[in-house]
Amino acid sequence: SSGINAEWPLRPGENAGLMPENMAPISCPDLIRLCVGDYNPNLEDMDVKKALDLLQGAAEDETVSNEVFEKLRLEIWCAVIMKDDWWTKCHLVAPDQIEQTLFYRAVILAYNSGMLVSHFLPTVDQLLGLETWGEVFVEEGRRKQFEYILRSGYEQMSTLGLVSH
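Request: output the structure for the sequence above.
Response:
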């Protein structure tokens, strides 16, 4: 196996039962899901960056529709938000604490590597529109608190010039 599979980090692949020496090429969407999905319980900012690099490659692939690209982009950031305890447990976060989150670190890493933020980061409304949150935040009050925290995070990134709203 050559190309991207040869460079694939073993941890999520092994967790999924995939072994580089005997596996067929994996599609870009499946590689993204391996980077940020359930097979990678130790999701870190570099894993998110790898998924975003793959997403950038998917954007350049004519076989990947805009609909698939958007779905993958939302899947990546949904996984990141779910990994950050303060998002899912709805703890209010002071602005100076946002820098400690995986969400923020992944945005900074991608931004510093030259990625166009508007291309790889969905809008706050796109993220809030995901059906996933209805399952995660059954109580309306917790969902409103989550929305407040997410909007505050975007506001903080906006003051740093990372996103516009």
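Residues 1-8 have pLDDT under 50 and may be disordered.
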